[in-house]
Specification:
The strands form two sheets. The protein has a four-stranded antiparallel β-sheet. It has a two-stranded parallel sheet with strand order 1-4. The protein is α+β, with helices and mostly antiparallel strands. Helix 4 (129-195) packs antiparallel against helix 6. 64% of the residues lie in helices and 12% in strands. It has helices spanning 2-23, 31-41, 43-64, 129-195, 201-236, 269-291, 324-327, 347-416, 422-457, 461-468; strands at residues 28-29, 69-80, 110-125, 244-245, 295-307, 332-342.
C-alpha cells in the first residue's frame, strides 16, 4: 500500500512539474511564427486582402452586366382620362402620361386601367467596350494583389528588423547581468581585503558604486528590451509582453554571404504594384476611347393593356366603366422585337480632355516608378556597402573581445596580488563589457545588413533561407 502511495505521489509531482513547464513560462516565438502571426493579424494586411476581395466582386458584377437585362412590370391605376393632343415629357417621373383622348369634350370621371410588360435588353455589339471593361476589371484585381504583396513584403521586413533588434536587446540584458555578476564578485574580494586591512576603504566604496552602476545598466537594458518586444508584438497585431523570443541561430553562426545572389531576375514588389498601376491607367484610356463608339442593342418586349374606357362609338364618344373588374383585365397585347443603335458624336469632344487627363495620370505613375526604382537601386548599393562594413566589423570584434578578456584577467590577477589599484580593474571591466556588447552588435549587424540587402532587392527569401535552412 505504501508503494502505491509513493507512486501516486510521484505522479502528482510529475504532473505539477509538467503544468509549471507548460503554463509557468511565456510562449517562445521563432521568426517564422512571428511572420505568420503578422500576416494573419496585422490590420493593414487584412485590409489589402479585403481590397482584393472587393476587386474580385466588382469584376464578377461587371461580367454579369454583360448578360441580357430583363425586367417585368405590372401596374393598376384609378385615374381620369382627360388629355389634349400634343407632346409631353416625363421629367424624372414627375409627370405621368395619361391616355384616352375624348372627342366629346372633357370629363373628369375616373376609370381603372392596367398594364403589364416584360422587356429584354442586351447590348450585343459594343465595338470593343466590353473587352476594355473586362481588361480593366482584371487589371484592378492584379493591381490589388500586387498592392497586397508589396504591403506584405514591407511589413515582413519591418517585422524581421524588429525581431533582430529585440534579440539584440535581449542579448544586451544577458551581457549586463554577466557584468553585474563580475561586479559582485569583485565587491566580495574588495570587502574581504578592506576588512582585513590589506586594501584601503575606498576600494570597497568603488566596488559598491560599480555594483550599483551595473544594476542600473541591467534595469536600463531590461526596459529597452521590453519596449522592443512590445513594438514587435504590435507589428504582430497582438500587443503583449507575454512572449519569449527564440534566438534561433543569430548568435550561434554568421550568415553565409556566398549564398546571397547579386542577380535580380525578379521584380521588386514595390515596382510591381506601380507597373500594375500604369497598366490599369492604360486600360482606362482604352475604355474611354471605346465609350465614344456606338453600341447596338437587341430589344424584345411583350406588353398588355387593360382599361375601363370602352372603344369609341360611331359618334366618337367613349363610355367609362369605373369598376375595377372592367379596368383590370388585359385587353390589348403588343410585342416588340428588334435592335437599337445608339451613338452620341458629342462624346468625342468630351472624351478628348478625359483622355488627356488619363495620359497624365499614367505619366505620374511612370515617374513614381522611376523614382522608386532609383531609390531601390541606391538602397541596393547601400546594402552592399553595409554588408562589407559589417563583415569587417565581425572580423575585428572577436579580436577586441579576446584582448579585453585577457586585459581583465591580468588586471584582476594584479589587483588580487596587490600590484594594481581598483581604478585600473574597473576600467578593464568596463572595457570587457563594451567588447562583449560590440561582439553581439557585430553579429546582429551582419544579419541586419543581410536583411537590408534582401529588402532592397525585393527578395526576402535570401534572408529567411539563411535562418530556416
Amino acid at each position: 500500500m505504501s508503494n502505491i502511495k509513493r507512486i501516486l505521489l510521484l505522479q502528482v509531482i510529475l504532473g505539477l512539474s509538467l503544468l509549471q513547464t507548460l503554463y509557468g513560462q511565456p510562449p517562445r516565438l521563432s521568426l517564422d511564427e512571428v511572420l505568420d502571426k503578422a500576416r494573419t493579424n496585422y490590420p493593414s494586411i487584412r485590409g489589402k486582402l479585403a481590397a482584393i476581395r472587393s476587386s474580385e466582386a466588382d469584376a464578377q458584377s461587371m461580367r454579369l452586366s454583360f448578360l441580357p437585362q430583363a425586367g417585368v412590370q405590372a401596374q393598376a391605376f384609378n385615374a381620369t382620362s382627360n388629355q389634349v393632343r400634343g407632346a409631353s415629357a416625363s421629367a424624372g417621373g414627375l409627370m405621368i402620361p395619361i391616355t384616352g383622348v375624348r372627342t366629346d369634350g372633357f370629363n373628369n370621371q375616373a376609370a381603372w386601367t392596367s398594364a403589364a410588360s416584360m422587356v429584354i435588353d442586351w447590348e450585343a455589339v459594343t465595338f470593343g467596350r466590353r473587352q476594355a471593361r473586362r481588361n480593366q476589371a482584371n487589371l484592378s484585381i492584379e493591381q490589388a494583389k500586387a498592392d497586397y504583396e508589396s504591403e506584405l513584403f514591407l511589413h515582413q521586413v519591418r517585422v524581421c528588423d524588429a525581431y533582430l533588434l529585440a534579440l539584440n536587446l535581449k542579448k544586451s540584458v544577458l551581457l549586463q547581468i554577466s557584468n553585474l555578476q563580475r561586479a559582485k564578485a569583485l565587491q566580495i574580494i574588495t570587502r574581504a581585503s578592506t576588512s582585513g586591512g590589506l586594501r584601503p576603504g575606498i576600494d570597497s566604496s568603488v566596488s559598491a558604486a560599480e555594483v550599483a552602476r551595473a544594476r542600473l545598466q541591467v534595469l536600463e537594458s531590461q526596459k529597452m528590451a521590453q519596449q522592443q518586444v512590445l513594438r514587435l508584438t504590435e507589428l504582430m497585431g497582438e500587443p503583449s509582453l507575454g512572449y519569449e523570443l527564440d534566438s534561433l541561430i543569430f548568435y550561434h553562426r554568421l550568415p553565409d554571404m556566398n549564398r546571397v545572389s547579386g542577380e535580380k531576375a525578379y521584380i521588386h514588389p514595390q515596382l510591381r504594384v506601380l507597373q500594375k498601376q500604369m497598366a490599369l491607367g492604360e486600360a482606362n484610356q482604352t475604355l474611354l476611347k471605346a465609350n465614344a463608339l456606338p453600341s447596338i442593342s437587341v430589344i424584345g418586349s411583350l406588353q398588355g393593356r387593360g382599361s375601363g374606357i370602352s372603344e369609341a362609338a360611331q359618334d366618337g364618344t367613349f363610355r367609362i366603366d369605373p369598376t375595377l373588374g372592367a379596368g383590370l383585365p388585359l385587353r390589348a397585347f403588343n410585342y416588340i422585337v428588334g435592335f437599337t443603335a445608339i451613338w452620341r458624336p458629342t462624346e468625342l469632344f468630351r472624351v478628348k480632355p478625359n483622355l488627356s487627363a488619363q495620359r497624365e495620370r499614367v505619366r505620374v505613375s511612370q515617374e513614381s516608378y522611376n523614382q522608386q526604382k532609383l531609390a531601390l537601386d541606391a538602397g541596393s548599393e547601400n546594402a552592399n556597402l553595409q554588408i562589407e562594413l559589417a563583415q569587417a566589423t565581425v572580423r575585428q570584434a572577436p579580436l577586441q573581445l579576446e584582448a579585453a578578456q585577457q586585459a581583465y584577467a591580468q588586471s584582476r590577477a594584479r589587483y588580487e596580488s596587490g600590484l594594481d589599484n581598483i581604478q585600473t580593474l574597473t576600467q578593464t571591466a568596463a572595457l570587457l563589457n563594451r567588447a562583449e556588447v560590440d561582439q553581439a552588435l557585430a553579429v546582429n549587424g551582419l544579419w541586419r545588413a543581410l536583411l537590408l540587402k534582401a529588402a532592397a532587392d525585393g527578395n526576402l527569401e535570401e534572408f529567411l533561407n539563411q535562418i530556416l535552412n
